[in-house]
Amino acid sequence: MTGLYAEWLVWALPFIAIPVVLLLSRLPKVRDWFAASVVGITFLLAVSLLLDVETGQTIASSVSWLSAYGFTVTVHVDGLAAFLAVVVNSLGFLIVVYSQGYMGHEKGLPRYYSLVLLFIGAMTGLIIAGNFLQLYIFWEIVGICSAFLIAFWYDKPEAVRAGLKAFLVTRVGDAALLIGFVWLYVTTGTIDFQKLGTLAMQGVIPLSLLTMTGILILVGAMGKSAQVPLHVWLPDAMEGPTTVSALIHAATMVNAGVYLVARTYPIFSLSQTWLTAVGWVGVISALLAASIATVTMDIKRVLAYSTISQLGLMFAAVGTGTAGGWVASQFHLMSQGFFKALGFLAAGSIIHMLGTRDMAEMGGLRKRMPLTFIAFLFSTLALAGIPPFVGFWSKDLIITELFLANLNIQAVLVLVVSVLTSFYMFRVLFKVFFGPESKMAQDKDLREAPKIMTIPLMILSACVLVLGFTEEWAAGLLGLEHALVFELPIIGASILAILVGFAPSYFAVYQGRPNPQTFLQEHPGLGSLRKAMLAGYGFDALYLVMFARPFSRISNGVRSIQTGILAKNLWPMLAVLLLLALWMMMNL
Amino acid sequence: MTYDWTVLLATFFPGFVGAFAILILDLLVKNRTNHRSAVSGIAALITFAFVAYSNWQQAALLLTTGKPIVISLEPSLLATTFTITQLGVYISSIALLLSILISLYSIAYLSKEGSSAIFQSLTVLLYLSIYAVTVAGDLLTFFIGWEGMSVAAYGLVAFYKHSWEAIEATMKYLLMSGVGSLTALYGIALVYGLTGTLNIEAFVKAFTTRTPIGILTVVLIFMGFGVEAAVAPLHMWLPDAHPAAPSPMSALLSGIIIEVGSFAFIRLLGGILIIPAYAILAQPILAVAAVATMFIGNLSALQQDDLKRLLAYSSIAQVGYILLGIAALTPNGFSASVFHIWNHALLKATLFLLAGVVTFLIGTRSLTEMAGLGRRSPILAALFTLGALAMTGVPPFGLFWSEFLIVLSNLAVKSPVLNAAVVLMLLNLLISIAYYFRVIRVVAFAKPSTALNGGGPIKIPLMLVIPCFILVALSLITGLYPNLFYQPAVDAIKSILGLSSCACGG
N or C: which end of chain A has fewer CB within 10 A? Predict the structure, then answer.
């Protein structure tokens, strides 16, 4: 298939298609299906790439770009890149199809579809990039797209604020990433992933430099993948359309960070400090986010915190420093992508039909929206990790690899995350679909979402059911030489964890015994913990005090010293001249 | 290689004749047509066509020989000398491009003003002065060109001569710039006293060891030209001058005039500053000045409501980035700065011209009052979004590359001061996102202000939109094919510093 230039077209096609989308604004139906079919084509191209590299070879080609520094545009497709390209484009395709229904009546659709195409194209470009600079450029484009898509409903001030916040917070990480890879470049003279990997293996790059630059690049990944403490943008990003949330959480954006860590793993894995840092960042994020998800009442925010938590598991898997852990992280990325897309799109059809995100307004929707219920149920089962859903396989692999690498503390903490995950997902399921039918649903005479939305849901449901069985194949594709390990005690432990989480959810939320309200009043300690969780452990408040306020204060100060009075304007100049004159007198 | 002075005359002669002819023509057509601004504008464009042709010839000559074209009126070290260098051509080409687009834009923009002959004529003279600065081979010619540029700029800032704002701004500009020029002149006098020559190449070579008087000379020249370059704390004239001037003039002022100051640093002082004895002192001072300039610019812009003043402060911040590139004191750093001048010129000119469109349409510079304008003119919203987004330094626009290369060239120098400066520069980029996103939000997306509420789509004269479109497109092209505009900058710096091989690639 090399004659197709698939490795170039797979990311360039969406970029080329954008002008067409804009030109087709008079023919909305044609435009929407054109956008969907472009992503469909890139999905097929990604599949063809996957078939090409399945047996272990790589496709690479490059053209010169900035000759003074010898920078090139390099496409590099190996198992990892092809695997992720397929994940991104398949999910992207389903989400764009679903958008036809979900976004059907919105204004500003040319903007929506062109940004979505740009988003998917840039994410694929990021994955196919063969060097740091190219990755960084796509990385930034992904960031802009997410900011503008989150702020899509620009009449809502909170949406605009959330878009800006996403861009600013991830840019903090981007700055670290930039310094990290430029630093590597000025010492080694290359930005190419393969060359850097070889140099690191040969021991040419000093270990301290690897650790420092590795951690800087990790900070970049934390920004995009919303890891603590750079996670604050993701829950707010829920202000965007749900399809955008699904894109950000499943197909694009947040996967970029995990991908970057996986891509640079051959370079930095020599540094034990780096591995430990990656692992702990993941474990801490997973725990914090999962705990917040247990109390949130906004259905989308629960899913958002759950994403942070699942991404944390991927970081933890990379932190094992084993090939198995590395594979586990990417397999979980795929798994998370599918069940989270399913979760968001199912939540999206509820929001679309019911018009709220507050779970207090939902309840008993099972009968009125049976297909959506099945979809959300599958997503919950997969996210909680119940066999044979895909989440079971990928999460089990992570826990196994953590134990095999003797990272017992981390492994136990991940099991705790499992308990929390099971609790908060079943909590959502019970609150939304079981119990008495909500007043809002009755008032609005709630119905099932249209077919254009339920069909993608059904496809995704089928995927989360069967994709787990591709684990061995995926491991081979990603270059794992030995067979995967399954340990019965670990499988038992993770199923036990799910049950431990399920029980309180079932009794407290579904049956109301004990009643959650009275239970919290009887245990004031839990109540204050709940408050802290609802405030997101105060990260937002801290950043407000640490950065936002001081900057506006300093800004006012800087403005007040510029009086615009001519006599004062010349003072600095006179002062410098006087000092110079004094200095000259002392020297002559 | 020495050439005849006719090479230069081909530029100066049509230029001066044209500048004069614009005024005469305007008098001739005074009572005969309602399109006086079109007549002046077309005359200016014709003049620029001649000038551009001659500049093209010079550039072609330069490229075939590969060496600077030296034109000396007498065979003496004191003689008036012109040296056409690649660096000079790079800068004057930016100036020419902006001048042409601005002449075109002003035809529509100033059509309500009655006569725009003075504006067009001064724009031609301004370009000729910048050209004179870029081809000057000795300090005196350089200074004369410089003063010509300043005088033309004063006139342009004071174009709305009946408004007090413009007069006050011009007075500030004139006095501060005058003090700067005198300071620089004192430095030039010292150069002559120290080295016995005013020839730029010769005096740079004469500075080999560091002496107190040598340092004084460098500082005086730096400070003198630093006023025009808007290096903090000498920038105070700029935030007043920009809003008061007509928008096309602001575009020129911010796009190229203040950058000619940075060009002066590289052209006159570059060769001296990279001498290790000077570098050790200059590097930290330059880095501190650069960082201070960025912070003052960005922090002042953060809460600004006057769009043009906001853009003016942002230009100050950009001068800080350019200065940081110079502070690396390596050929790569200089090239990055020169490349940044190009990228910044494109985008800042775009934004000022767009601010001009807003003034043209609804007569306000206040962001609160222009809120929601974009809803009634999608083209304006799109251009504003692209321009402001590009100014925050995101790919795939050209500005990303030059900022990236400034970071790269500074980190390549193993100096803690420069490394810290890079971190602060990245922090500044974050601050600039905050206010540029505000601009995008307010202009393109916000709910219409009460004054703008209701009413259908607004039509904008094409002549106001086309220049902005060309500039944004050029920025995008630069971002996609950075080689196209970066390689000339590298070659230009190479030829200025007389380096046979560039120490590129870390």
Answer: C
Chain B partners within 8 Å of A569 (Cβ): 172, 176, 236-237
What is the pLDDT tens value at each position of chain B, 506 positions in all?
567 778 888 889 999 999 999 999 988 888 887 788 889 999 999 999 999 999 999 999 888 887 888 888 776 666 788 889 999 999 999 999 999 999 999 999 988 887 889 999 999 999 999 999 999 989 999 999 999 999 999 999 999 888 898 999 999 999 989 999 999 999 999 999 988 888 888 888 888 888 888 888 999 999 999 999 988 888 888 988 998 999 999 999 999 999 999 999 999 999 899 888 899 989 999 999 999 999 999 999 988 889 999 999 999 999 999 999 999 999 999 999 999 999 999 999 999 999 999 999 888 888 888 888 888 888 899 999 999 999 998 988 999 999 999 999 999 998 899 999 999 999 999 999 989 999 998 888 888 877 666 677 888 889 999 999 999 999 999 999 999 999 999 999 988 887 544 343 33
Q: Tokens 């700067």 correspond to what residue?
A: B180
Type of residue at A167:
F
Does A143 contact B237 at a Cβ distance shorter than 8 Å?
no
Q: Is B455 helix (H, G, I), strand (E, B) or coil?
A: coil
| Cβ–Cβ < 8 Å for B314, B230 | no
In contact, B413 and B329? CB cutoff 8 Å: yes
Alpha-carbon gap, residue B339 to B89, rounded angstroms: 13
Residue type, position B266, single letter: I
A171, B433: Cβ pair inside 8 Å? yes
Substitution target in A145, A185, A566, A568 with the highest count of B β-carbons within 10 Å is A566
Which neighbouring-strand residues pair with B199?
A: B138
| DSSP one-letter string for B377-436 | -HHHHHHHHHHHHHHTT-TTSHHHHHHHHHHHHHHHS--HHHHHHHHHHHHHHHHHHHHH
Structure tokens at B373: 């304008």
ipTM: 0.91
Distance between CA atoms of A236 and A161, rounded to whole angstroms?
9
Residue A431, both tokens = 């609150």
Which neighbouring-strand residues pair with A4? none
Radius of gyration, alpha carbons of chain B: 22
Question: Chain B residue closest to A165 (CA)?
Answer: B434
Whole-angstrom CA distances from A507 to A423, A503, A514 are 11, 6, 7
- Please list every residue in chain B whose beta carbon sits closer than 8 Å to the beta carbon of residue A167: 433, 437
pLDDT tens for residues A490-549?
889 889 999 999 988 888 888 877 777 778 777 888 888 888 888 888 888 888 888 888
The answer to whether A160 contacts B237, with C-beta atoms less than 8 Å apart, is: no
Question: Which residues in A lie closer than 8 A to residue B175 (C-beta atoms)?
Answer: 566, 570
Closest residue by Cα to residue B116 from B40, B42, B46: B40
Nearest CA in chain B to A152: B445
Contact across the interface for A566 and B483, Cβ inside 8 Å:
no
Q: Residues of B with CB below 8 A from A171's CB?
A: 429-430, 433
Domain definitions of chain A by residue range: 1-270, 279-516, 537-587
Q: Is A168 within 8 Å of B430 when comparing Cβ atoms?
A: yes
Please tell me which of the candidates A66, A182, A576 has its beta carbon nearest to residue B223.
Answer: A576
Rounded to whole angstroms, the Cα distance separating A247 from A95 reads: 7
Per DSSP bridges, beta strands A71-77 and B81-84 are: unpaired
Chain A residue whose CA is closest to B335 = A68
Minimum CA–CA partner of A182 in chain B? B408
Q: What is the distance in angstroms between the Cα of A17 and the nearest Cα belonging to chain B? A: 17
Those residues whose C-beta lies under 8 Å from the C-beta of residue B253, and which sit 6 or more positions away, are B153, B156, B157, B238, B241, B242, B245
